[in-house]
Specification:
This protein has 949 residues and is an alpha+beta fold.
């Protein structure tokens, strides 16, 4: 017997990428079918109408089964309970008398840990040679008459007339056959499968030789096949024979080309088992329930073991395509089609803005043009700057147990580790999932230390004189760290294991450990590798040790064990209104690394908010248990945090009217009274007509993740001042002066209790953070003690970015579709910085990303560069758009009606005032809580207060 083999189109990874595209196309077919069939919901792409289903059929292998056909569960005389579903092949669920193929799906239940799906149709050969032909033909022939005509024309250009004619003849012949009974049809597999270690086979299910005849097909009864099968079962069991056709050679029995029939002459069928379907013994109600359960099942030929895995291109595609189609049908995955006007006018608008932007920066345009330009930017970035770094399954692998439905608990509440946010891809965004990329990595080990990062940091980053950001207060600095702790966490090895070793400039030494010796190198704890890239090459992929969703994990913890330790019933543990402390004196909360008083204030504030919400929910929903109250309060707090960041913090740090309107629209939709903007959006991007929370989840072609480039633009350490003054919020009297090191680590809790939350918030509210610019990196972070290490964070920021393969600044800029800079003067307006940059880097293309982002002149009102802003445009929407709990499940049934109202009506200001009501007179009346507050002039000075400038 000849040896069979598979042949890949390119390689397994190239096929995987193609299959993911085909899966999206098949979801489009489902949408088109729904539209033209007027079905209320998404149906199966094919075989949508079940004709008959049985939950307890029996498949029994022959007693005298030859030894060379025995493999795995295939054993002589062995019998298995089998689920059977007969169906019409069309996706419209049409009447039985309509021209159509018929299909059968079997689920052979070997044990709880092993099941096998077999799928077949009543025509011996597929019309499609491979997966691409199959999906292209499905797309072309879905929808109405005009759609089909246009689709067939496209097929002619894609595959040529002869192939299109062949496919049409095949499908026409398969559909025009009159079927009198399902029990009298033979059903053939689509493509081959393995059968044990050495065999490749196609299989078929044929009626038993003694099957009784059936009356002529009806042309009036839409359910005549179902009725005939039921009458047949009244008279006795229905029997089929399961047969296999062994592989012979690549010409007569090809593995890859499913359009070539394995004839009975080339490979005579060999009977291996009998299938017996009996009349259901259950009552009518139970029988209907069983049928409904079977109809909900998702059959897939990859639900099997490796000994019986599907073979060939068409079969390899079925795992991804069928899974996507099933998820779409079960409302686990979504696809939204842009209207034709958006595809045409949106493309024209993007082309026009691309020309305009060569001459005029987007922020110099009028408000409406700026908003439309930002929408165009986002579209381009979504298409070109979302790179999936997870290792895909290539080639597909068999799975002995079909995927199970998510439990009710994960449907209604967030998991702690971020799993099951996307019900079709449970691990997406969960702890341990990969950081993605917005730009192709630039991995250059020979330039890791060029120029020396210590020199770069010392000459270009270190703070000489504090440069304030006068439009913000220090709460804005604390807030972004509060958020980053929720989003990203690169796990680190302990110092001493695979250290990153940075050579020091000549004559310089460094103590790497507390109490350690002075060395001529700086040692930095390495990140835990997520995946090796090859022999002798460090990894450029890392897993995120935090959930990547906007889920408040910095407050609630990353797992159920930690969350349980923080809870007291439905509430978070507080001691006299403050967070409890551990043995080291640190506040106990979800994540307390890099801790300081600013974080302590925000964690305390939102812990109090959670507990207040528990009381409010308890008073309104008296039948709820502790768990539901806790999880609902957790959802509300997490969504409120996301809203505050979207519509308050980001517009505060990017203080322009276009950003304010744009980000408010991200959450609330465009202004109701701005009909001209709404018209423009309707014309070019109808999906933006409502706020993202009113839309469906959309990952825009790449599984959701935060990215290494996103981490890079959030390196905002210059926001932190080195020196702090604390004041009484009622009198304005100074309480204390502290340096940053005096209010960080274990000292933070002592300060919180000494000053009180109100005084801490007030003191941060009236003070400015640092500007995100060169020469403004906090001195307090240049020799910071952490886990017995001594680290210079200014150097760490440079080293981490280089070693994670983030492109240098000029490549980073061009990768985000901005013009490449060619002169030093384009990078900075400071002659002294031009001199330093030239001296240190030599080439403008070697400027570090962090340095370039700090040096680049920002648009008016911006707290950081326009290049960094490109990542914000993309990721600010993505963090909302991908999240089920901030889109399709952002609804009263999940959050409660009270919770939805709470999120809609609250802001950072109202959160602060709820827990510190006597700060009402100092908070901005109309502005953001992240803008400077009104300072109180100390009455003890004996002079009248002056209006603050």
């Amino acid at each position: 017997m000849s040896t069979w083999r598979e042949e890949y189109q390119g390689d397994p990874e190239a096929e995987r990428v193609m299959f993911e595209r085909l899966a999206q196309d098949m979801m489009g077919v489902q949408l088109k079918t729904k539209k033209y069939s007027s079905a209320p919901t998404i149906q199966r792409a094919f075989h949508s109408k079940a004709i008959f289903a049985a939950i307890d059929a029996k498949l029994k292998f022959l007693e005298d089964l030859p030894a060379d056909l025995c493999a795995g569960f295939v054993k002589p005389g062995q019998s298995y309970t089998t689920i059977v579903r007969f169906s019409n092949a069309n996706g419209f669920g049409q009447a039985d008398y309509k021209p159509d193929m018929r299909g059968v799906a079997l689920r052979i239940q070997v044990s709880e840990n092993e099941q096998h799906d077999l799928l077949a149709t009543n025509f011996p050969v597929s019309h499609a040679r491979n997966a691409e032909q199959f999906v292209a033909f499905a797309k072309a022939t879905a929808g109405g008459i005009l759609s089909k005509v246009a689709g067939l024309v496209c097929l002619l250009f894609k595959f040529g007339p002869s192939e299109v004619i062949r496919m049409l003849r095949n499908v026409t012949a398969a559909r025009k056959r009159k079927v009198s009974s399902l029990a009298l049809e033979t059903y053939w597999s689509r493509g081959a499968i393995r059968w044990g270690e050495t065999l490749a086979v196609r299989y078929l299910l044929r009626p038993a030789p003694d099957a009784p005849s059936a009356p002529e097909p009806s042309d009036k009864d839409p359910g005549y096949l179902s009725n005939e099968f039921a009458r047949r079962l009244d008279r006795g069991d229905v029997h089929f024979e399961l047969c296999i056709q062994p592989y012979v050679d690549p010409t007569k029995t090809p593995i890859e080309d499913t359009a070539i029939e394995w004839t009975t002459t080339a490979s005579p069928p060999v009977k291996v088992a009998d299938l017996m379907i009996s009349k259901p013994g259950a009552g009518i109600a139970e029988a209907f329930t069983d049928a409904r359960l079977i109809d909900e099942l998702s059959f897939n030929p990859w639900n099997t073991t490796d000994e019986f895995r599907p073979l060939g291109n068409l079969n390899r595609a079925r795992k991804a395509v069928y899974d996507a189609s099933s998820a779409h049908r079960h409302i686990y995955r979504w696809r939204s089609e842009l209207p034709l006007r958006n595809r045409v006018l949106g493309g024209a608008a993007r082309a026009a803005f691309a020309v305009v932007n060569r001459y005029v920066e987007w922020h110099r345009l009028s408000l409406r043009l700026s908003l439309l330009n930002l929408d165009a930017f986002r579209h381009v970035l979504r298409n070109r700057n979302l790179i999936d770094t997870e290792i895909g399954e290539a080639p597909p692998a068999a799975r002995p147990v079909p995927p199970t439905d998510a439990g009710e608990d994960v449907r209604q509440a967030r998991t702690y580790d971020g799993s099951f946010n996307d019900l079709s891809q449970p691990k997406m965004g969960a702890i341990g999932s990969a950081f993605g990329r917005n730009l192709k990595p630039d991995f250059a080990p020979d330039l890791f230390d060029t120029p020396n990062p210590v020199t770069v940091a010392r000459e270009l980053l270190h703070r000489d004189t504090f440069i304030p950001a006068r439009s913000l207060n220090i709460l804005a600095a604390a807030w972004i760290q509060f958020q980053v702790h929720d989003w990203v966490n690169h796990a680190r090895n302990p110092l001493g294991k695979d250290d990153v070793v940075v050579p020091l400039p000549k004559g310089m030494t460094w103590k790497n450990y507390v109490g350690g010796p002075a060395e001529d190198v700086m040692r930095i704890a390495s990140n835990v590798a997520g995946r090796e890239q090859g022999a002798n090459r460090p990894p450029i992929y890392f897993g995120n040790n935090a959930s990547q969703w906007w889920d408040g994990s910095e407050v609630y913890g990353p797992d159920s064990v930690k969350a349980g330790l923080l809870r007291d019933g439905p509430k978070l543990k507080l001691v006299d209104g403050h967070l409890p402390v551990d043995l080291k004196g640190f506040e106990v909360t979800g994540f307390n690394e890099s801790w300081w008083l600013g974080l302590g204030a925000l964690h305390t504030l939102f812990a109090r908010e959670h507990n207040l919400l528990c009381d409010e929910l308890r008073s309104r929903y008296r039948t709820w248990d502790d768990e539901r109250i806790y999880q609902t309060a957790r959802l509300i707090v997490s969504a409120l945090i996301a809203k505050i960041h979207t519509v308050e913090w980001t517009p505060a740090i990017l203080a322009t009217r276009a950003i304010d309107v744009g980000l408010s629209s991200n959450w609330n939709g465009p202004p109701a009274n701005d009909w001209l903007t709404k018209l423009g959006i309707w014309l070019i991007d109808a999906h933006a007509l409502t706020g993202i929370p009113k839309t469906l989840p959309d990952h825009h072609g790449a599984p959701y993740s935060l990215t290494e480039d996103f981490v890079t633009v959030y390196r905002m350490h210059p926001l932190l001042p080195d020196d702090y003054c604390f004041y009484d919020h009622t009198t304005g009297t100074k309480i204390a002066e502290r340096g940053f090191l005096d209010i960080q680590g274990a000292a933070a809790d002592d300060c919180m209790r000494a000053f009180g939350l109100r005084n801490a918030l007030y003191s941060f509210g009236i003070a400015h953070p640092g500007a995100i610019t060169l020469h403004n990196f906090p001195r307090s972070l240049l020799a910071l003690e952490r886990d017995n290490e001594i680290i210079d964070l200014s150097v760490v920021d440079l080293v981490r970015t280089r070693r994670r393969g983030v492109p240098r600044y000029n490549d980073f800029r061009t990768g985000l579709h901005r013009p490449r800079i060619k002169s030093w003067e384009e990078l900075t307006t400071s002659p002294e910085d031009v001199r330093l940059l030239k001296e240190i880097y030599g080439s403008i293309d070697r400027v570090d990303t962090v340095v370039g982002l700090f040096a680049e002149p920002a648009p008016a009102g911006f707290g950081f560069s326009d290049t960094a802003f490109r990542i914000f445009i993309l990721m600010a929407s993505r963090r909302l758009q991908s999240d089920r709990f901030l889109t399709v499940d952002f609804r009263p049934e999940i959050y409660s009606p009270f919770g939805m109202d709470w999120i809609a009506s609250n802001s950072m200001t109202s959160v602060i005032l709820r827990h510190c009501p006597d700060l009402v007179s100092v908070l901005p009346r109309t502005g953001s809580a992240f803008a400077p507050w009104r300072p109180i002039f100390p009455s003890s000075k004996g002079v009248p207060p002056e209006r603050p400038s």
